[in-house]
Amino acid sequence: DVKVTQSSRYLVKRTGEKVFLECVQDMDHENMFWYRQDPGLGLRLIYFSYDVKMKEKGDIPEGYSVSREKKERFSLILESASTNQTSMYLCANRSRENTEAFFGQGTRLTVV
Amino acid sequence: GQSLEQPSEVTAVEGAIVQINCTYQTSGFYGLSWYQQHDGGAPTFLSYNALDGLEETGRFSSFLSRSDSYGYLLLQELQMKDSASYFCAVRRMDSSYKLIFGSGTRLLVRP
Lengths: 112, 111
What we know:
The structure holds 2 protein chains of 2 kinds. Chain A is mainly β. Chain A is built from no helices and 11 strands. In chain A, strand 7 (64-70) and strand 8 (73-78) form a beta hairpin. The N and C termini of chain A lie far apart (36 Å). The chains are: A mainly beta, B mainly beta. Chain A binds chain B through residues 31, 33, 35, 40-45, 48, 50, 56, 58-59, 90, 92, 94, 99-106, and chain B through 8, 30-31, 33, 35, 41-45, 48, 50, 87, 89, 91, 95, 97-104.
């Protein structure tokens, strides 16, 4: 069963902490994405990566960075967590040839 | 820029047919996809329209008209389990890796 796995379902962090959200795939897909999902706003793209060590900003990259040192792992980093980063974070992947994206189960992050 | 607009909420009766619209303002894209997300779950792929016209997959059909900048998802013989959020999405031509989603439509199916 192919998977996109996010390391945590729920996370509570304090304002100012550096937060790492991890995503691992076993599908050998080139493209990986990080979205945040908020009520009424849908899925908004934070960052994506189209290859190892390659990344591009999405629509809302401020306050975030990413790391892709290996093909199977894509990490989202909140440099200094703030309360407005409380959200559901979804990792996804897609192969270069296909249109279908596969999502992880999401990490609900609360910043207090 | 790009924008994908969907109605925020739709309510329908079990057994009925419902259409969820997606209008877009984007300079160019590879096709229109639809995803379903149940509460607490991950979005899952439903359909993809690369070309104009209707694509049918069981009870679900999806339509695209590039000239009208418009697409829709049609759900027939609605079941209670179809209650979920539905998102349209496009891959933009100016960056073929980017997958952009609409704001989503919450479908509530009533008995």
